[in-house]
């Protein structure tokens, strides 16, 4: 059972006014996703950038269903007993990539602790089909922690994604606050380190506004750097539903700039930091910039 947010929602500051979803391409993408029964994290997480991203042909596909086997209290994705995997999902993602003429795609999933391999082979199948049918397409995978099982991480990496993304989400102290086991902080860092040691570009993200201190943010960034992470996103946590934990602080755009400087001083090669920054926000741009392309 989810913990219910116990405080009245704070009014949003003026810099957090999201664009109402719209635009010709937005509706075209929505219709095509619905036709194929595909989910995106853009919709499930009620991302404020959906209009901007979709009208620029950028979306993040959510594979393996819309129900997560875990229950993090910052997340608006439904939790419960996930449905069986859909064998046609890879083909449907491919069709969407073709419709959107994508050159860079982000694939993420719900956590599937119910599956013997955590869904890693399904993930790999999607990557493999995209690589076979869209040579030149850059693929970023935003994976669950697979409980730290490196065999499952290998299954995904062996399919050859271009970027391995795995979010740390928040600082170590707040893991229990968001209904995560304290040891998961370390497990996530180990997954990232494993990917880095295998030669992959690794990326991670945190949300701020959950009650962390600046010192804790710095410690988290240092932990990520020590695990070899090169690309980082920092965004404002927003309470999507009454069942999510409340926002403790709204950072100003100026504070996000300061966090960006802090991240660069820690040694990250690419950083996006801002109120509406999400893990996959401008993912293509960050990849290109970090690689001097
Ligand atoms: S930032 Fe990511 S999740 Fe949000 S709309 Fe863009 S692609 Fe989707």
Blueprint (SSEs and pairs):
Layout lengths: L23 H13 L2 E2 H4 L5 H5 L5 E4 L3 E2 L9 E2 L9 H12 L3 E6 L10 H14 L4 E5 L7 H8 L5 E3 L17 H15 L3 E8 L5 H13 L4 E6 L16 H14 L3 E5 L8 H8 L3
Parallel strand pairs: 2-5, 3-4, 5-6, 6-7, 7-8, 8-9, 9-10
Antiparallel strand pairs: 1-2
Helix pairs in contact: 1-4, 4-5, 5-6
The protein binds iron/sulfur cluster.
The CATH class designation is Alpha Beta
- The shape is globular
| SS field, number of helical segments | 10
CATH superfamily: Aldolase class I
* Spatial order of the strands forming the largest sheet: 1-2-5-6-7-8-9-10
How does the major sheet shape up? 8 strands, mixed
- From the alpha-carbon coordinates, what is the Rg to the nearest angstrom? 18 Å
* Count of discrete structural domains: 1
- CATH topology type: TIM Barrel
Number of strands: 10
Arithmetic mean pLDDT: 94
Backbone structural class: alpha/beta
Q: Give the ordered list of helices and strands.
A: HEHHEEEHEHEHEHEHEHEH
What proportion of the residues is helical, as a percent range? 25-40%
- CATH-derived architecture: Alpha-Beta Barrel
Bound molecules: iron/sulfur cluster
- Percent strand equals 5-15%
Runs with pLDDT <50, length 5+?
Answer: 1-5
Distance between the termini: 46 Å
